[in-house]
Amino acid sequence: MDDREHLEAEVSYYDPTRQPASPSRRHFLKTAGASGLAVAAAPALSSVSYAGSPDDPDTQTDAPPAEGARRITLTVNGRRHQLDVAPNVILLDALRHGLQLTGTKKGCDHGQCGACTILVNGTSINSCLSLAVTHDGDEITTVEGLEKGGQQHPLQQAFLEHDAYQCGYCTAGQMMSALAVLQDDDIGTSDADVREAMSGNICRCGAYKNIVAAIQSARGAVQGGKA
């Protein structure tokens, strides 16, 4: 599913010469008509803007954020970014639409499939369940951050070698969860342990056997400090 059909959030880079358009009364009433809950979290009223130049993350602007927005700083894949986000913007949308990091996928949007898994300060989370404003100052790793200097991460290579995907939609989340699993000393090393730890990531194509094989294959490289 095209997530722009799934989410009608207004997302744009920060432009100090242009004020963000307000949703029309008609659109607001149409959105609010669904339910009281929809009003509280209506994505049509959400916004994400890049504060500064998207081509140079180190640039900053003296202009204040738009009314109702909050300026946050995220270090994503080693690069520092400033974003102006509305209070109801989820971290997944801030990454996909604010930073154009579309490797992280939107699946169920309810924290049940794991397609949106990323690492925040080294811990795996479902980014569809977490508000962006709660991560001001955090360090985030997405699937785009696995590759270093043109060299594939051992997990990426292992997923290729073991055919651990079919349609590929869940693959980014699978790899990010797998990285967290391999870096957690409290999780056992057996196939059963891996399956249990990875149970929050759904593969609708059913490539689970190959996914476990890929994770086990990459274990030595990841835990040996080569990744």
From TrEMBL:
Keyword presence, Disulfide bond: no
InterPro entries per UniProt: 2Fe-2S-bd (IPR002888), 2Fe-2S-bd_dom_sf (IPR036884), 2Fe-2S_ferredoxin-like_sf (IPR036010), 2Fe-2S_ferredoxin-type (IPR001041), 2Fe2S_fd_BS (IPR006058), Aldehyde_Oxdr_Iron-Sulfur (IPR052914), Beta-grasp_dom_sf (IPR012675), TAT_signal (IPR006311)
Chain spans, region Disordered: 1-25
Keywords on record: 2Fe-2S, Iron, Iron-sulfur, Metal-binding, Oxidoreductase, Signal
Transmembrane regions: none
Example GO molecular function: 2 iron, 2 sulfur cluster binding
Recorded superkingdom: Bacteria
Segments forming domain 2Fe-2S ferredoxin-type: 70-146
Keyword Oxidoreductase: yes
PROSITE patterns noted in UniProt: 2FE2S_FER_1, 2FE2S_FER_2, TAT
Record NCBIfam families: TAT_signal_seq
Protein's name in the database: Twin-arginine translocation pathway signal
Species for this entry: Chromohalobacter israelensis (strain ATCC BAA-138 / DSM 3043 / CIP 106854 / NCIMB 13768 / 1H11) (Chromohalobacter salexigens)
